[in-house]
Amino acid sequence: MTEQPPARLARYGRRFDRLFAEYFDDLARTLDAPSFSRFTPECLELLRDLSLRGGKRMRVVLLHEAARLVTDGPVEGLDAAALSVELLQTHGLVHDDLIDDSATRRGGPTTYYAYREKFPGQPRAALALTVLAGDLALALSLRALLDAGLPAEVRQAMAEVQTRAAADTVVGQIADLERDFTGTVPDDEVLHDVADRKSARYSVLAPMRLGLLAAGLPPGAHEEELRRYARLVGICGQMRDDYLDVFGDEAAMGKPTGSDIREGRRSYAVVRLLSGVIGAEHAVVQRALGDSACGPGTVAEIREIGERHGVDALMRADMRRYAEQARLVAEGWRPRWRAEAVDFFAALPSWSVERTA
C-alpha cells in the first residue's frame, strides 16, 4: 500500500466534510418543523457545528475501504452510509459530553454547555434539549439510509446494521458506567467487552458491514472474522485513548490529560496503575481517583509513578500485541479480497496504536 492511513484519512475526510456541510444545508431547508419553532433550527445548527468541527473521519474511511475489498469501481450508497455513521457518531458525542459533564469538544463548546449558556437559569431546559439533540442525530442517522436511492432490501439491511450498532453502543455506555461503580478493579475481559460494545461495534464493525453491503456482498458469511478484527482494533484504539489520557502530550492532543483519573474511570491505564503500584504511590493514585479537583501537578505525579513502574511500557506492549493480532486477521483476507484494500486494513491497527493524538 503506497498511501498510508493518515493520507487516506485526509483525502476521504476533505471530500466527506463537503458532503456533510451540504447535507446540513439541505436539512435546514427540508426538515419538517413547525414554522414558529426557533429551537429546532438552533438544534440543527448546534449539531452541524459539532459534526463539522474536526474529527478524524476514520469511520468514513473504513466504510469506503470495506467496499474496496470487493471492487475498485464506484459504489452506490456509500455517501448515504457515510452520513449515517457520522450522524451516529454525533449522537454519541452529544450524549457522551452530557454524561461526562464536558465543557469542550473538538476545540469548541459541547452541545450541553452551549445550551447551558443559552439557558443559564434553566438547567432542566438545557439538559432536555441536549438529550433531544442527541436523539435527533440518531434518528437522522437512520433516515439517511432509508432515504438513500438504493434497492429496498439493501436499505433495510443497512438500517438494521446501524440500529444494532446504536443499541450495542448504548449498552456499552451503560456497562462503562456500571464498571466504575463496582468495588473491585475490573479485569481485562471486562475492559475488552466494554471497549467492544461501546466503540468497536459502531466505529469499526458497522462501517465495514455497510461498505460490504453497498458493494453487493452481504457480510454474513464473514461475520466471525469481521467481528474479531473490529474487536481487536477497538481494544487497540481504546487502550491508546486511555494511555494518552495519562501519558500523552497535552500540546499534541489539544486537551488536558487526567480526565479519566478525575472522573474516577477504571480505564485501561487506571487499572494498570492500580494493579502495578503499591504502598504510598498506590495511595496517591487512589486518592486522586474520582477527585474532580485533581490538578495538573497530581496528574504529572501519577504519570511519573506509572513511568517509574513501567506501566507506560506495559501498555505500549499490550497495544502492539493486539494490533499484531488484528493485522494477522486482515492478512487472512488476501486469498479472496483485493490486495490494496487488505493492505489498508493490515496497516491500520499498527498506525492506530502509534498515533500521538
TrEMBL record:
Keywords: Isoprene biosynthesis, Magnesium, Metal-binding, Transferase. CDD domains: Trans_IPPS_HT. Its cofactor is Mg(2+). InterPro entries: Isoprenoid_synthase_dom_sf, Polyprenyl_synt, Polyprenyl_synt_CS. It comes from Streptomyces parvulus. This is Polyprenyl synthetase family protein. Belongs to the FPP/GGPP synthase family. It comes from the Bacteria.
